[in-house]
Amino acid sequence: MQDTSDTPSVASKDAAPTGTQTLLRGLGAVQAVASGARDLKEIARLTGTTRSTTHRLVSCLVDERYLRVLPQVGYLLGPKLIELGFQARDEVPLAMLARPFLDELSALTGDTVHLAVRDSDEVLYLQKNPGRNGPEMRSRVGHRMPLARTGIGKALLLDSPESEWLRLYQLSQPEGGRNPLWPAHQEQSWEQIRQRMREYVEGGYAFDLEDNEPSIRCVAAPVRDASKHIVAGISIASTLPYMPLEKMAELVPVIKQAAARLSAELGG
Predict the structure, then answer these.
(1) Cα–Cα distances in Å, from 5 out to 70, 74, 158, 160?
(2) Which residues does residue 115 pair with via DSSP β-bridges, in sequence order?
(3) What integer pLDDT is reported at residue 267 of this predicted model?
(4) Phi, psi (degrees; rounded to nearest 5) at 10
């Protein structure tokens, strides 16, 4: 609960100190509120400013809607930050943000690197960096694949309930009369599929162990936005001779770090 003795009235912007140091202090105040500070005393402690300076900075931030103050709650992030956040997200396409991370993975591994999103029960590829190892894969930008066949698709499913995994598994059965989502050459029971997915959820990654087509393997990880929801996936893929299980295990922390860095660019 907020200390009401600390609650400032909205002050004039002209009362605020000026200069670069003030800008940094103001940004520090916003970050302090984002980290959970709810009253002037805590904001001042986190920013290292005096009570009077903090009072003036926070009052201006409230006035400009970068912060808000609610009775019995205290200071919260304001609506202006929501507006700017959506604007920032929409101004830079996902593929553009992802490019340096994909290029880095390509240079590091020599394998094919993908960026993809979920579109219904399919993976939609937004970016592909062809690999130097082995023959080129048939995937391409704009290409779609059934969601549950690919490692990147499994990564996109990590937050989905088991009922969703089961639905996709059942669609793969012959009596369903639908195109299979789990290929016939991988004769796996629902229990095997569920166990694999549970392991992937726990580890924060996913594998394609020739689930999509023979001799193709990949390691994938999910990308999250500011809402913490999965919005995309990235993967490193290659043919079997270039992607033994030992290499896949070594690539898990690599792909997870790249996905985390891209997530950070999206506010995740």
Answers:
(1) 14, 12, 47, 46
(2) 127, 234
(3) 83
(4) -70, 120
Q: Is the pLDDT of residue 14 over 50?
A: no
Q: How far apart are CA 157 and CA 154, in angstroms?
A: 5
Widest Cα–Cα separation across the chain: 73
CATH topology of domain 4-87: Arc Repressor Mutant, subunit A (1.10.10)
Q: Where in the chain is the domain with CATH 1.10.10.10?
A: 4-87
> Architecture of domain 92-265 in CATH?
2-Layer Sandwich (3.30)
* 162 neighbors 194 (Cβ within 8 angstroms): yes
Top mean-pLDDT range of 95-99, 208-212, 233-237:
233-237
φ/ψ (deg, to 5) at 238: -165, 175
Distances (CA, A) of 266 to 18, 22, 88, 96, 124: 31, 27, 9, 12, 19
